[in-house]
Amino acid sequence: MQKLRQGGAALLLLVLLLALLPGQADAAGERPGRVVGYFPYWQPGQVHKLQYDVLTHINYAFAIPTEEGGLLPLEQPALARKILAQAHAKGGKVLLAVGGWSYQNVPLESTFAAATATAEKRSRLVRAILELCDSYGFDGVDLDWEYPRISDGTYRQYEALMLELSQALHSRGKLLTAAVQPGVSPSGAVWDTSAHTDAVLQAVDWINVMAYDGGEGADHSTYDFAFRAARHWQEDRGVPAEKIVLGVPFYARSGYVTYDALLAALPDAWKGDSALYQGQRVWYNGVETVERKARYALTELGGVMAWEVSQDAAGPYSLLSAMGRVKRETLCAFQDVPAGSWYAADVADARALGLMQGTGGGNFSPLRPVTTAEGIALAARIHRRYHAGADDLGAGNPWYQACLDYALENGILTERPAADTLSQPLTRGAFAALLARSLPEEALEEINQIAQIPDVGADHPYGEAVYRLYRAGVLAGTDAKGTFRPENTLTRSEAAALVLRMADEDRRIAHS
């Protein structure tokens, strides 16, 4: 198996693990605060701009349909596999975006119409999409047909395609999303969006609203335009707010100037939304507008989307970084986590990365103990994700039964615990023992030379596990002497720190 920093076996990762704790997982099992980014296959040299700690979902663009109901071979397959591996290692998801506006400068609208003209062709296209998803390991599909129409009846073909896709993907535990037009003009005039039927809107997990290209100039993508677009889908079409993801452009109009190119020519362009570029005035979204849109989308809607990530600028004025700042700000504020506390940053980062959530009512409950059952479930799912690449243990009766059985079968537990101990608080030492048995040695590279821990001797019941995790930089002492206090209970604040160290080797601690 590869080491964790190399993306080994989808890194555990606790993305859903700590969601086992009461009040922590949403119904869809999705990471909180969707930040969706399209990444085009034709920009392999820009893959470094993907910020996996910010993006919850990446849409790999595009798979191209054929008139016969098939798909062309996926472009840049090595790039797709690299993005999949790196995103999965950080707990993110990657969807296969199918379609787009055009292919080789030829609009794809007629291709979609031909590819779905008969039930046989539609089923062939669905099979082709599923086969591509399964062969690469995509987590779902974003269908980008621009656009089905009422006037020519293609909306019926689109609906049939989407319903068949929805059934097939959801039965496999995969996502289905759709890219949709804004539905309004920049001035607020409502367009007819009925080609995206109510049945389609119910069948998808969410819609990505392309709230840009409102005009070649100042109307390109204002905040007001974006707000009106979101309200159209929510109020006029009845789409729940949590299923609306607001699209933001990483490029300028008139023409098509990437934000990266704009900033390279005009270093202060990030401060505004309009600039004189090569003798022509262009309009775009600067840092402040992106933050404002992201704040609205992350607090009032289902998230924010970027078209597209390769056009972003690296460095302090990155638009994706601006989204990340807002995400952290809006999702990580717990009223019971004092600013400046030792665990505040860990709690914030664990929340922002989707590793831990609150316990309800705006609280995190940082001092609440983790129970023995929860600790066993965490360790079992860590083991399963590392060795099988997926967490498919599911729920039992009681909720932890499947995890308990798995832990016994795979040596994470050496004996079945008494029923009355499962609801008891878990000690730091006992959790160390579970963690140490949940990963192989190569997943916990030794970075510290630890000869002695003051309160954990070599003959301590948890000694071997504690020393192993100290040497890997996962565990640390509670004082300058390195005292571990193995009999103390494990709290949620401590769990946040451990989760981050397990998830990211760069966070592990090198002891002096």
Notes on the protein architecture:
This protein is α/β, with parallel strands linked by helices and 512 residues long. 35% of the residues lie in helices and 13% in strands. The protein contains 15 helices and 14 strands.
The arrangement of helices and strands along the chain is EEHEEEHHEHEHEHEEEHEEHEHHHHHHH
Helix content: 25-40%
Number of strands: 14
Major pleated sheet:
8 strands, parallel, barrel
Give unreliable regions as ranges: 1-29
CATH architecture of the largest domain: Alpha-Beta Barrel
Structural class: alpha/beta
Number of helices: 15
> Per DSSP, what share of the residues sits in E-state strands of 2 or more residues?
5-15%
**Radius of gyration based on Cα positions:** 24 Å
Q: What is the CATH class name of the largest domain? A: Alpha Beta
State the CATH superfamily name of the largest domain. Answer: Glycosidases
- Look up the CATH topology of the largest domain: TIM Barrel
Largest sheet strand order: 1-2-3-6-7-8-9-14
How many structural domains in the coordinates? 2
Q: What is the 3D form?
A: globular
* Distance between the amino and carboxyl termini: 29 Å
Give the overall average pLDDT: 89
